[in-house]
From TrEMBL:
Keywords: Membrane, Transmembrane, Transmembrane helix. It is found in: Membrane. It comes from the Eukaryota. It is a multi-pass membrane protein. This is Rhodopsin domain-containing protein.
Length: 322
């Protein structure tokens, strides 16, 4: 009986979730700060759209964390400190708000990565068109998701006024699982985007693998997305067990909802740290292959070198000389 009472009084915001909500945005902030330093100080370049997109993602990540912290402050950390009915409203409202933050963060970080690809492979017209097409698809995906979440309850303002009694216009749980699965698909697709371009580089296989490895530093994002999906699915399934505290079951899924966007920010920043590691011989060899993979005339290479130093980007592809 005591164990049952303890389970029923357990809050979904616990110390582990609170720790993740505070620490990960700090790490992501350091990653973005280092990215901006590499861009503006080391190569004297200007911040571009991919930098600002990842900065927006960071702001949204902080919003997501603050939403979690506020829920803990209102409803309690580890143990529920308010009446059950009131806590139900707090928990469901927190989940509803967090969905907006998560949807936006996962969208903007994908846009940042695609923008980075667009700039670094800028001389390949077909690749640029593919990046633009994917950005358009992602934008439609993001906007439609925001609209669906905003209008998910009937009436639509019940989500924040009386969440515990709100009725959904559609199966929100099934939609959210489908949305998360589609996000993983987009992550995998974006991860594979540079492969055709890197395969066409006129460098040896070892260098191609090194270059691909730089772009695939973000592979952990796909892993964290899959883990979040599994815990999300399990938590939604367990919400059907009305004999237990439903909201305490989502803690692990919420932790990974903090992990995924913040690690996405870090992963999006890693390939931009090239100017910080010029003294490393292995990295320098790879770095040079990024500058001028197809050779070309001495004058064109010099011009390219001057241009890329000014902008902070190093095109990975050039048209072969005719």
């Amino acid at each position: 009986m005591a164990d049952s009472d303890s389970e029923m009084s357990r809050a979904f915001v616990d110390t582990s979730l609170l720790g993740v909500a505070i620490s990960l945005p700090i790490i992501a902030s350091a990653a973005v700060g280092l990215r901006f330093y590499a861009r503006t100080s080391k190569v004297k370049g200007m911040l571009k759209i991919d930098d600002w997109a990842v900065f927006i993602t960071l702001i949204v990540c902080w919003g997501h964390s603050i939403n979690t912290i506020v829920a803990g402050a209102i409803g309690g950390v580890n143990t529920i400190t308010i009446p059950p009915r009131e806590y139900a409203n707090v928990a469901l409202r927190t989940l509803w708000i967090s969905t907006f933050f998560l949807i936006t963060a996962l969208y903007s970080v994908k846009i940042s990565i695609l923008s980075f690809y667009y700039i670094i492979f800028s001389v390949n017209y077909r690749f640029k068109q593919a990046c633009i097409f994917m950005m358009c698809v992602l934008t439609l995906w993001w906007v439609s998701a925001l609209i669906l979440v905003f209008l998910s309850t009937d009436p639509f303002d019940a989500a924040w006024k009386n969440a515990a009694s709100a009725k959904h216009r559609f199966d929100f749980n099934a939609w959210y699982i489908s949305y998360s699965a589609l996000s993983i698909f987009f992550d995998l697709a974006i991860l594979c985007f540079p492969i055709p371009m890197i395969k066409s580089l006129q460098v040896n296989t070892k260098q191609k693998i090194s270059i691909l490895g730089i772009f695939w530093l973000g592979g952990f994002v796909c892993v964290s997305a899959i883990i979040r999906f599994v815990f999300l699915y399990n938590s939604i399934y367990r919400l059907t067990d009305y004999g237990k505290n439903q909201y305490s079951n989502i803690t692990t899924a919420f932790i990974w909802a903090e992990v995924e966007p913040n690690t996405s920010v870090v992963a999006a920043c890693l390939p931009t740290y090239g100017p910080l590691f010029k003294e490393n011989k292995l990295f320098t060899r790879v770095y040079r292959s990024l500058r001028s993979p197809f050779g070309g005339s001495k004058d064109s290479r010099s011009a390219e070198k001057a241009d890329t130093r000014a902008s902070g980007y190093y095109p990975l592809s050039r048209e072969a000389p005719s």
